From TrEMBL:
PANTHER family: MEMBRANE PROTEIN, PUTATIVE-RELATED (PTHR46689), PHOD-LIKE PHOSPHATASE DOMAIN-CONTAINING PROTEIN (PTHR46689:SF1). It comes from Tuber magnatum (white Piedmont truffle). This is PhoD-like phosphatase domain-containing protein. InterPro entries: PhoD-like_MPP, PhoD-like_sf, PhoD_2-like. One of its GO terms (cellular component) is membrane. It comes from the Eukaryota. Residues 1-85, 768-796 are annotated as: Disordered. Residues 320-575, 582-750 form the PhoD-like phosphatase domain.
Length: 853
């Protein structure tokens, strides 16, 4: 644990009830006091492997299976770090000094009010900016930033009178977030602690709008010491080298001030940072930020210690945010980054789009960082991976040396990756909301056999990865609960291999759009994604927060796609006795890469087990989808699912059986699964995408619900017709915003008729009863998801279904050898749900598990 276990004095009654539920499910499972803790002057980290005999999840530990099987095992293992960093006499494993500074849960907040946002005709106050140059060349007092700034979004708060016609002052809507920097202690001056200045910085027409060429060439970045660094245009970059970590390639921060910006007018706010954490010669500083929203979207600028200003955008009051979604933001170990011009090209395109129509938030769908190199760039952990005897490997202790080098690796890896290249630039100016997946830990974590996942070394690695995930991707420590940060939705009990509560997040992305980022990794096992009790907590939160009639859309981020071609046939082959001879050859070293270095299983099997469509997850998946359908009908809210992981793009969909004749806008079962992956990693070969496409059939979730992949890719990025219209293996990212008639040029709006597939086997489940108006030469004009419109005019059909609809754009890379990162858009319109018993076909019906497949 980081910092002290802290209990808020005024914990809400509902928070107490949830805490009691967690105590009942996991009493003593994840808290612990390190030995010799009373001799240390500061709060300390406590890591624990899952205890020997907890009751981690009450009742059913997974959907449809009684608890007891696969219960947590292993000896409790505590890790602390003495102040001098040396091993203590008691032989405990020393991992890290973890300082959660004073005021972590009662931080100073820098708050811009409506009066600060509205500049009016106030004359500049020279005394307010005396001694400041338009282009500062260093931080004052001195700082050396090892990582950051990182901008995070945590939600909206509404105060005051609520009505359709109320003004911004009558109904206050406040944007909440935080900004974090990681500084090198020996090169920084902390007297006083770092200070942030927050103010409005209006954008000129030259700074936003239609982009011409590589607009990043006009921008710059901030170095570790506060120096302005000019960017290079894409045409000056080599197409065969990964140059993402070259400082001169960073871009797009504001360097000059307009005469009417809030700072020059003396309308700014300042606050000192809160020390979130300190270790290994670095300190994590967090600034809590609040901005009251006005009648128009606003550009907000910030300076840290009088350095160059960086700007981000907040939406107008009530406005649906302009959302960017990405996943798989790194390269696998087998990939040569030079083959793809490094990680920057699509982030360059993101920043171009951000300049033209600013993003208010970016959703990270997992694998924001690839930590697989931990198996290559460590000594002790690498040596452990090389142990051939399974019993020796699984019983090996998590040594102090192993813990030390893992902490070094994750800290340095995060500091490098989250500040490198154009991803680092985006992190400073587009507010992030993240969930994690296996590569944020290590490839396949949670999907290996139970005996391996629960061994001391692997659970120790999971604990270290969780700590740094919380610090860098959520700017939080593991003691932070819902009473401290309301965007958290904590799980019921600690996970089986990471002894912490799962951390899903819920927030609004505008008044009409709610967002749920589901933690599908912390509780994951080979046959479990999330416990039923944790699902209950999630749906309790959704029921409480979502307002029927006002909330039009719920975006659910899962990480791994849930509507995707089945690969059960491949699972069956990989787990059959037919593989035994090949496994034997692999163990003898004749088939390099065929077996993984973790549990000695077939390398591909952990990826298959990760999928919601895997046979081990089938019951849970079907139950989850039916529960989402019930919730959609109850609240009349359209549910859109986001997924990444698979390194290609596509649109999966659930929908009512055509026999029910339910129009799309009235269909509570219609849930598109937008699949966008990867923004950096390599796509699979076309042949692999074609194999997956051949597995695409109309499957039957239950008697009322069908599912398949939507044929959105009629043509490739070069305009040539495609045979595989459902899956496109190119690097990509997605944009989601509220539909307006000016957003798209429409020529095709109807889906082809659905054809039913044949199936040979029926099983019953066994679980518990502003784009520019200028034409885009690369643009696709197809808008999917429009069947059911009662008009022959595509434009009229789109306008009819477009009220409160979401507009989704998949932006596909045109040329992986081009550092400019140009993309072609493919579009999807997701209509709002108008649900009623007279509009649909009656009650929401559940088969108790969706028994068809």
């Amino acid at each position: 644990m980081l910092g002290h276990n802290s209990k808020h004095k005024d914990e809400p009654e509902e928070g107490k009830k949830q805490e009691e539920r967690r105590k009942q499910g996991g009493k003593g499972a994840y808290h612990g006091t390190p030995s010799r803790a009373d001799e240390l002057d500061e709060p300390q980290t406590v890591y624990q492997t899952p205890p020997k005999s907890p009751a981690p999840i009450p009742g059913h530990d997974r959907i449809g299976r009684r608890s007891g099987r696969h219960s947590h095992h292993g000896n409790p293992l505590q890790h602390i770090r003495a102040k001098d960093g040396t091993a203590g006499s008691l032989g405990d494993v020393r991992v890290t000094q973890a300082l959660g500074g004073v005021g972590v849960f009662d931080p100073r907040v820098v708050h811009l009010t409506l009066e600060d946002v509205e500049l009016g005709g106030i004359a500049p106050q020279s005394s307010d900016t005396a001694g400041y140059s338009d282009v500062p060349t260093s931080f004052s007092p001195q700082l050396n930033i090892k990582c950051g700034p990182l901008l995070r979004y945590t939600g909206l708060r509404r105060d005051g009178t609520f009505s359709e016609n109320c003004t911004a002052r009558e109904e206050r809507e406040t944007w909440r977030g935080s900004i974090m920097i990681v500084t090198a202690d020996d090169l920084s001056d902390y007297s006083p602690p770092p200070v942030i200045r927050l103010f409005v910085q209006p954008a000129s027409e030259a700074e936003i709008g239609e982009a011409n060429g590589d607009t990043l060439a006009e921008a710059a970045a901030v170095s570790a010491t506060g120096e302005r660094l000019p960017a290079k245009p894409a045409e000056e970059l080599p197409s065969t080298k990964d140059k993402a970590r070259d400082d001169l390639l960073l871009g797009n921060v504001t360097t000059t001030r307009r005469a009417d910006d809030g700072e020059k007018l003396g309308k700014y706010k300042e606050a000192e940072a809160t020390k979130l954490h300190a270790e290994r010669g670095v300190t994590f500083w967090r600034f809590m930020v609040e901005v009251e929203l006005g009648d128009e979207q606003t550009r907000i600028a910030y300076r840290i210690n009088h350095g160059p200003s960086i700007a981000f955008w907040v939406p107008a009051r009530g406005q649906t945010m302009n959302i960017m979604f990405h996943s798989c933001n790194g390269f696998s170990l087998s990939v040569n980054p030079d083959d793809f011009c490094g990680p920057d090209p699509l982030w360059r395109d993101v920043l171009r789009e951000h300049r033209e129509k600013p993003f208010h938030v970016m959703l990270g769908g997992g694998d924001q960082i690839y930590n697989d190199a931990v198996s290559k760039k460590t000594d002790h952990f690498k040596a452990w991976l090389g142990i051939k005897t399974p019993f020796v490997k699984s019983s090996h202790e998590f040594t102090p040396e192993m813990a030390e080098e893992l902490e070094d690796f994750y800290l340095e890896r995060y500091c490098m990756w989250f500040s490198q290249g154009l991803f680092g630039v985006a992190n400073a100016q587009i507010a992030m909301v993240n969930i994690w997946d296996d590569h944020d830990i290590i490839d396949g974590f949670g999907s290996y056999p139970h005996h391996f996942n629960r061994c001391p070394v692997f659970t120790g690695l999971g604990a270290v990865a969780f700590k740094y995930y919380m610090l860098f991707q959520h700017q939080s420590i593991v003691d932070e609960k819902e009473e401290h940060e309301p965007s958290w939705v904590l799980g019921c009990a600690p996970g089986p291999y990471i002894a912490e509560l799962s951390r899903s997040c819920f927030m609004f992305l505008g008044r009409k759009v709610a967002f749920l980022g589901l933690d599908c990794r912390t509780e994951r096992m080979r046959d479990l994604v999330l416990s039923e009790e944790s699902y209950d907590l999630v749906f309790e939160r959704l029921t409480k927060e979502i307002v029927a009639g006002e909330t039009k859309h719920l975006i659910v981020l899962l990480g791994v796609p849930i509507a995707y071609p089945r690969l059960v046939w491949l699972e069956n082959i990989m787990t059959s006795r037919l593989m035994d001879p090949l496994k034997a050859l692999g163990r003898m070293g004749y088939l390099g890469g065929f077996l993984n270095s973790f549990d000695g299983g077939v390398e591909l099997l952990d990826d298959l087990d990760d999928h919601w469509t895997a046979k081990n997850h089938k019951a849970e998946r079907n139950w989850f989808i039916e529960r989402l359908q019930e919730f959609a009908a109850e609240k009349s809210v359209r549910i859109t699912i986001l997924g990444g992981d698979v390194h290609l793009a596509g649109i999966g969909q659930f929908y009512s059986s055509p026999a029910l004749h339910v129009p799309r806008e009235n269909d509570h079962r219609y849930m598109p699964n937008v699949i966008s992956s990867a923004i950096v990693n390599t796509p699979p070969p076309n042949a692999m995408a074609d194999v997956l496409n051949k597995r695409n059939k109309v499957h039957h979730l239950n008697h009322e619900t069908d599912e398949d992949m939507y044929p959105i890719f009629d043509a490739d990025v070069d305009g040539k017709p495609r045979n595989n219209k459902r899956l496109l293996p190119r690097r990509n990212y997605a944009i989601i915003c509220e539909y307006s008639a000016s957003e798209a040029s429409l020529s095709k709006t109807t889906q082809p008729p659905v054809q039913r597939s044949t199936f040979s086997k029926i099983k019953k489940a066994t679980f518990g009863a502003k784009k520019s108006n200028k034409p885009d030469p690369l643009s696709s004009v197809t808008v999917a998801g429009m069947d059911g419109a009662n008009t022959s005019s595509p434009k009229v059909a789109a306008d009819q279904l477009g009220r409160d609809a979401l507009y989704v754009v998949l932006r596909m890379e045109v040329n992986q050898k081009d550092p400019a990162g140009n993309t072609k858009p493919y579009r999807l319109l997701v209509p709002a749900l108008k649900y009623g018993r007279d509009a649909a076909d009656g009650d929401v019906h559940s088969e108790g598990g969706g028994g068809w497949i």
